[in-house]
Specification:
single chain, mainly beta, 22-stranded antiparallel beta barrel, five-stranded mixed β-sheet, globular
Length: 722
């Protein structure tokens, strides 16, 4: 098979989807200047205002497969940790998402891994969505317009990730005058400027940065907080820039650019003899959209985007500084239609992507006690996708059914380091192809105005893997795509839920159950030394499968001075590898049997608002020896079942208070007081089993030790709007 044949297949799919036209009726209209499918509604001039408000209040009952949606008004009511109302962080507390734990920035949705979430900013891929080990997200709250979170029944227009979709869009409205938002705080500061050049064209830019290591941590050290915590380094910055150009009533062009850096320094990690280590990672994305409102029933959007992620680790290992570098670049073009035809709301389109992955590049400043293997491959891949889905509402039923098709190919250059011979593939040649068809289905039945049930089933494939290098939680991961020896991940996901509201939608309750399969999961089969030195990454991986299931409960109060919610997850997550645990199934590292979130918000008066967040989760799983014995002054460790040990429970209390200040010369402002980890819980970052001998004898000091990272972090910030 040649690259030309693959491109012809992709072009054929694109043409078929782009030319698919369904007749429309005048009964429906696109009534909002946007391509968001939520704005496509029945056009009925006689609808009453009270009915619209009732629909908004009962959105949890009536919503389809669009998942949870938050707008800026909702975000401002959430607890403002370290001075920011962060919508992405709030996802960890809304049910179905496990608490990641200390120094872990990921979302673990219904037993899935961190890399199984599709994170989009204005339709552009974000590889690592958090700063400072998960305290902040990369999304500036002053720019966000809406956020969509889908964890079940993922619609066919989204592909490439198994567990969830987080789709965030920035404001697309051209402001009437100069608008400045920002904050000044002890931990971080930010500023955002939106400027209308003309009535049809506006630009915006923002800048954020932190200085935890410069101000807060030295102060905590003076107060007697553990110096091993306060000597660590946590810094980040990010920038956003973009424009909105409304050419006329039918055409709009939107552009966006984002770049962010993190610089983390961990003074000491005893396992592997690592000391004074640093990590640096960077996200860069950019995209441009063209939106065309063809008529009241049909709109078209096309987008060209770029996404890049780099991570670099400097490890002081056995008195030698070693540098591990990994990178990933992706280029995307997608085009899609939104169309209304009778009772049908249709979406169909195509996507073409090209990516480059550089998963392992090692440099060393001196001779080290291992030899670096010069075998090394970069990976190049091309993928084409097409999708079609139809959402229709008939009486009390709403059904969303669709299908997505994918063609994926690893292309050259590439060198196969076979045991018998070395095979080289030239640039542009096709090395391995994969094909997949993904059916998607969601249904909602409204039992009566206060009660509904929802069911979903979906099949998804994932062609990019993010495999952790280290076991101690720092986000030093390798981006490894599907290739000659690595099959794409795949999943079946089934879920069902019962939703009921009370007291005119003032109270929401829900219970959801799910079952998910996970195919072609990856784990490194060797130790850290082999990972560092083996350039042939593909042959250093084990392939297995997994499954997860659970039940989620949620109660939420929406009105009154006192609001908030309670979310509880009861879940199991298993993995099975033939070469691990003698082939027996074992609990996954991210298994959290119990996961609890309590969010409370209280409006005292027009000046003061208070909020609190408490999270609790049973500890994640890890592998520790059951016993040890000594042979010839060497300690031999004996292990039992894999991941048989459970880390201590993770829990934390965060507090926040907001004082709205008097408006002066048109400047609205407020003071935000917050405390992260209010009772200074020493949540474990790493648990180590250590043995130390004495003076050549058979006497050994054996112990289990824990290390910690984040102490109590108080913060004060001034938030302003001009």
């Amino acid at each position: 098979m040649s690259i030309k044949f693959l491109l012809l297949n992709i072009i054929f799919i694109c043409l078929m989807a782009a030319t698919f036209v369904v007749s429309a009726q005048d009964k429906y209209a696109i009534i909002k200047d946007t391509t968001d499918s939520n704005s496509i509604t029945k056009k009925n001039i006689q609808i009453e205002e009270v009915q619209v408000r009732a629909r908004l209040k009962s959105i949890n009952l009536l919503s389809g497969s669009t998942g949870i949606q938050l707008d800026m008004e909702s975000m401002q009511q959430l607890p403002r940790l370290v001075g920011e109302a962060d919508p992405y962080k709030a996802l960890q507390y809304m049910g179905g998402v496990s608490q990641a734990g200390e120094a872990n920035s990921g979302l673990y949705v219904r037993g899935g891994n961190n890399d199984q979430n599709l994170i989009l900013l204005n339709g552009t891929l974000i590889q690592n969505p958090t700063h400072v080990l998960g305290i902040f997200s990369v999304f500036n709250p002053d720019l966000i317009d809406q956020m969509k979170f889908v964890k079940s029944g993922i619609p066919a227009e989204y592909g490439g990730r198994l567990s969830s979709v987080v789709d965030i869009s920035t404001a697309s409205v051209i402001p009437e005058k100069l608008k400045i938002d920002g904050s000044l705080g002890l931990i971080s500061s930010r500023i955002c400027v939106q400027f209308p050049v003309t009535k049809k064209f506006s630009v915006y830019g923002s800048l954020r940065g932190s200085y935890i290591s410069s101000l807060i941590l030295p102060g905590l050290s003076l107060l007697g907080i553990d110096s091993s915590l306060t000597k660590n380094r946590y810094e980040y910055y990010d920038v956003n820039a973009g424009f909105n150009y409304k050419i006329n009533s039918k055409h709009r062009i939107i552009g966006h650019f984002y770049s962010g850096n993190d610089d983390i320094g961990i003074m000491q990690v005893r396992q592997y003899n690592l000391d004074k280590n640093s990590l640096w990672w960077k996200n860069t994305t950019g995209g441009i959209q063209h939106i065309y409102y063809i008529n009241n029933q049909l709109s078209f959007k096309q987008q060209l985007s770029y996404s890049s992620f780099e991570i670099e680790s400097d490890l002081n290992w056995f008195n030698s500084v070693n540098n591990l570098h990994s990178g990933f670049n992706q280029y995307d073009y997608n085009a899609g239609f939104i169309q209304i035809s009778g009772i049908h709301q249709l979406r169909y389109g195509t996507e073409i992507s090209y990516n480059q992955s550089h998963p392992n590049f090692i440099r060393s400043d001196s001779i080290i006690p291992i030899e670096i293997d010069n075998k090394h491959n970069n990976y190049y891949a091309l993928q084409g996708s097409a999708y079609f889905r139809d959402e229709l509402t008939i009486g009390k039923w709403q059904v969303n059914a669709g299908v997505r098709g994918n063609i994926y190919a690893q292309i050259g250059p590439y060198t196969d380091y076979d045991d018998d011979q070395t095979i080289k593939y030239s640039a542009g040649s096709i090395i391995k192809t994969y094909h997949s068809i993904e059916p998607r289905f969601f249904a909602r039945y409204l039992i009566h105005k206060n009660t509904s049930v929802k069911l979903s089933a979906s099949r998804i494939h994932q062609y990019l893997n993010q495999v952790p290098v280290f076991s101690f939680g720092i986000p030093a991961d390798l981006q490894i795509p599907a290739s000659l020896y690595i099959k794409p991940q795949a999943s079946w996901h089934f879920s069902g839920g019962y939703f009921q509201n009370f007291k005119e939608n003032s109270w929401e309750t829900s219970v959801e159950a799910y079952y998910k399969t996970l195919e072609n999961q990856l784990e490194f089969k060797s130790n850290v030394a082999d990972i560092f030195t083996n350039g042939d990454i593909e042959k250093n991986l084990l392939t297995g499968h997994g499954w997860s299931y659970g039940i989620e409960f949620k109660v939420r109060k929406n009105s009154g001075k006192f609001t908030g919610w309670f979310a509880y997850n009861l879940a199991w997550s298993y993995r099975q590898f033939d070469a691990i645990n003698d082939g027996k199934p074992f609990l996954a590292s991210n298994d959290r049997r119990h996961d609890l979130s309590i969010v409370t918000m209280y409006k005292l008066n027009d000046k003061w608002n208070f909020s609190a967040l408490f999270v609790y989760a049973t500890g994640s799983r890890l592998n520790l020896p059951l016993s040890w014995y000594v042979i010839n002054q060497k300690v031999i460790l004996e292990y039992g079942d894999y991941n048989a040990f459970e880390m201590p429970a993770y829990h934390r209390l965060d507090l926040s208070a907001i004082y709205k200040m008097k408006t002066i010369h048109g400047i609205r402002s407020e003071l935000n007081f917050s405390v992260y980890n209010a009772y200074n819980r020493a949540n474990p970052f790493q648990i180590l089993y250590s043995t130390k001998g004495f003076n050549g004898t058979d006497n050994f000091n054996v112990g289990i030790r824990m290390s910690y990272l984040l102490p109590v972090i108080p913060s004060v910030s001034w938030v302003f709007h001009i």
